[in-house]
Amino acid sequence: SITGKPILLNNIADAEAFVSGAEVAVIGFFQEPESAEASQFRQAAARTPEVPFGLSSSPAVLSHYGVSANTVSLFRRVDNDRRDLDMNKEDVDTEKMIRFVRINELRLVTEYDPVTSIGVMQSSLRFNLLLITDKMSPKHPERMRRFRAAAELFKGKILFILLDSNLKSNEQVVSYFQLKKSQLPALAIFHTPDDEHDVMTVDEISTERVQDFCNRFIQ
């Protein structure tokens, strides 16, 4: 395809380099690279430009990852997790593959919406930190840069989430933390097993401030 996706992974070294080179990586394992399933996988890859897709039909690679044929696996760095979609068990089409990727593509900073929220709730990370902010603000890129820098420090411990206060579907979350628009941006941290949470309004995000807020809550 014109987009150069998916990338062909011919051996274990290629596959491991591919997985470690991205926050989120998807590999389709197919015994028959020209099968109908593989062609649907290629369509899913073309329609999900922001996620790297690889394809392998190497028996060594399939056995290295412990998969039988026709499996789509998503690897994510944020919590070192892997999710598998077994196409032999159910009827999987391009739409289902894309939805599987969208639900499970947790990143260092995951943007919250009705689809990603499902993956957030299934994450193995018990602490979630939300930056509730207006994405349209001219200060947004710089805020995100600092928030991401803090996310690097808590990789594998806390899931960092961006919540755009402009999205209608997010209003419920904002009101759950009893925040008004005038108080934003704000940080909200919570411990998923018991819903314990803490909220802090911030005029300016600094990496240190985020770090202190997280450390205090975890302790």
Automatic annotation (TrEMBL):
Query: Which Pfam family is an annotated match for this chain, by its short name?
Result: Thioredoxin_6
Reaction(s) the record says it catalyses = Catalyzes the rearrangement of -S-S- bonds in proteins
What InterPro entries does this protein's entry cite?
Answer: Thioredoxin-like_sf
Q: What family name appears in the similarity comment?
A: Belongs to the protein disulfide isomerase family.
Highest taxon of source: Eukaryota
Q: Where in the cell is it found?
A: Endoplasmic reticulum lumen
Instruction: Quote the EC number.
Output: 5.3.4.1
For the biological process aspect of GO, one term held by this record is: response to endoplasmic reticulum stress
Protein name in the entry: protein disulfide-isomerase
- Organism, by scientific name, is Campylorhamphus procurvoides
Q: Which GO terms describe its molecular function?
A: protein disulfide isomerase activity
Alphabetical UniProt keywords: Disulfide bond, Endoplasmic reticulum, Isomerase, Redox-active center, Repeat, Signal
Q: TM spans, by residue?
A: none
Q: Which GO terms describe its cellular component?
A: endoplasmic reticulum lumen
